[in-house]
Design a protein that fits this description.
This protein is an alpha+beta fold. It folds into two domains: about 5-100 and about 240-260, Rossmann fold, CATH 3.40.50; about 105-235, Probable inorganic polyphosphate/atp-NAD kinase, domain 2 (Tumour Suppressor Smad4, Sandwich), CATH 2.60.200.30. It is built from six helices and 16 strands. Strands 5, 6, 7, 8, 9, 10, 11, 12, 13, 14 and 15 form an eleven-stranded antiparallel beta sheet that branches. A hairpin with a 2-residue loop joins strand 8 and strand 9. The longest helix is centred in the N-terminal third of the chain and has 14 residues, at about 20-35. The protein is elongated and about 60 Å long. About 40% of the residues are buried.
Length: about 260
């Protein structure tokens, strides 16, 4: 919660929910208990669902820039707090804030058009056909990898490092580390390259080689650009979204615990 909202007393809470029935049921219970406020008038937004819905909520309210306290009523709930009807105002008042900065992606397509998108988890480049993608990777205008043949590659934020990046055997990144994760997806050549950790201010350019023969798509969270020839990615420090977490299950501790799971 912001300092201004604390001074004003009780927060104005808006509830939003995924289409899943547990989320809709929780939405009805919470609105009956705390009232129904439209998100535009809220000082805190409470999404109900899973991590996918949390990402949608972050994108939906990025311009409003109000704190978000998610409660788990979906499948995966890594970015959510546990669901409880009682004591929500007190939980929000004592919650631990975590500031997130998204990645900005600019994708250039074969037809000469460009598409821009934002990602709080990761930007991934993926092959579109049976043939492996052939990619060139540059960091801050220096070519670091002349040719990567793989199913794809991704650049993730620390929060995103526990999502697709972890499934691709990339490293888990502590939230305060100040780095981004660059991880290959099923690399064929060079077979032993496992990726890199980059400063959060790095500007990454990934080019699709032989794009006519080996088409590639780019995905920023859930926004996809097809048939891309080059993608430029950097962290946008001008945008910040605040997630709120219960102290007993704060996000930093969750990320740390993930590093010790077998």
């Amino acid at each position: 919660m912001t300092a201004a909202s604390k001074r004003q007393g009780t927060p104005r809470i808006a509830f939003v929910a995924s289409e899943a029935e547990p989320a809709q049921q929780a939405l009805r219970e919470l609105r009956q208990h705390y009232g129904a406020i439209v998100p535009e008038d809220a000082t805190v937004i409470v999404p109900l669902g899973g991590d996918g819905f949390m990402l949608e909520t972050l994108h939906r309210f990025v311009a409003q820039s109000v704190p978000i306290f998610g409660m788990h009523r979906g499948s995966v709930g890594f970015l959510m707090n546990s669901y409880r009807l009682e004591g929500l105002v007190e939980r929000i008042a004592s919650a631990q804030p975590v500031e997130l900065h998204p990645l900005d992606m600019t994708a250039a397509r074969e037809d000469g058009t460009t598409q821009q998108a934002m990602a709080f988890n990761e930007v991934s480049l993926l092959r579109e056909s049976r043939q492996a993608a052939k990619l060139r990777v540059s960091v801050d205008e220096i070519v670091r990898l002349d040719e990567l043949m793989a199913d794809g590659i991704l650049l993730c934020t620390p929060v995103g490092s526990t999502a697709y990046n972890l499934s691709a055997h990339g490293p888990i990144i502590p939230l305060g580390a100040g780095v981004l994760g660059l991880t290959p997806i099923s690399a064929f050549r060079p077979r032993r390259w496992r990726g890199a950790l980059l400063p959060h201010g790095a500007r990454v350019r990934i080019e699709a080689l032989e794009a006519d023969k080996r088409p590639v798509s780019a995905v920023a969270d859930f926004t996809e650009a097809r048939d891309v020839v080059a993608v430029e990615i950097h962290e946008n420090r001008d945008i910040a979204m605040t997630l709120l977490f219960d102290h007993e299950a704060n996000l930093e501790e969750r990320v740390l615990k993930e590093q010790f799971l077998s």
